[in-house]
Amino acid sequence: MNEPIGDAEGQPLTRRTARDAATPDGDAAAVRAPDVDEAAIPPRPPLPKPVDFSSDPAAAVREQFRQARGDFESHVTQAREHLDQANERIKARTGRDLILAIVVGLAFGAVLLGSLLFLKELFIPIALAIAVLGIFEFTRALRAAGRRVDIVPQIACGVLLVLAGYFAPPWLSWVALLFAVSFIVVWRLLAQMIAKDGRTYGDVLADAVVGGFVQIYVPFLASLALMLLRQEGGQWWVLGFIAVAVATDTGAYAAGVAIGKHPMAPRISPKKTWEGFGGAVVAAVAAGVLLALYLLELPWWAGVLFGLSILLTATLGDLGESMIKRDIGIKDMSSWLPGHGGLLDRIDSILLSTVPALTFYFLLSPWAVLV
Question: How many independent structural domains does the chain possess?
Fold first, then answer.
């Protein structure tokens, strides 16, 4: 039988009394760790010896190169993280991918610049392609909004208008415009008569007017750029007004992102601000003066007038296209240009700027000859 646990009087032992009874001397430190066989422990590996670079110069160079490469990769990673964070903030504010927008814009600008600098006739197929794509993009957006716009006659008349701007006399370009608008309107009315789908008179009239407006807005304004191109030294004027329009957009975008707080036209384009417009004014005037002095051979005050006129038409063209998109109910005309939206979203300010550019050429070009 087991011995009873307790003291002589039969009372149970406390935990401490039981622990002291388990050790002869009552010392808690009497519990010893098990013995360890030191021979079974593997020896500690030796520490790596420092490289003596004084005796091996090549190793010193390799070590310095490795450290420099590591520092460079670290800086590149940090810069990329900062750029991605800034891009995300700008994208959240403007709805555009900054990096893609810059890459696409530089590529588009390089093509235009190369055609105008080396052989101005190369600009003709570029302008024709832009006009055709712009017509197709605009027509598709209108059709998605419920308008009846015929793509094939639109493109056919658009090609005629654009080519007339370069190869026909100026008066014949106006005749071509009248013919194109009349043809589009008559085509739509005849197509509606054949369809007989019960469309109301107001909708049919709106379809005809919108179809004629497409011809004026895209191919005719593009033909004015070719009309300017065919003049003596016209390629420099085309390059000049495009550069001022791009500078206007860039200045407005940079100032709007940096300090833009007060909306300029919230019902039309909520993200355009008066601070952005101020940046556009500074950029347009500066670009106009520089181009007048070093490219167009005009006095500085002519550059100021040229820059302000392009600023006005570029702003109106941008706001006008925003109004059209808002009326249609879309954000971008298309998604063909990554970071920009549609083609018309990028050339809306350039198209309307052909009017003051051609006007100023005939008003101020005598200075370019006399200087």
Answer: 1
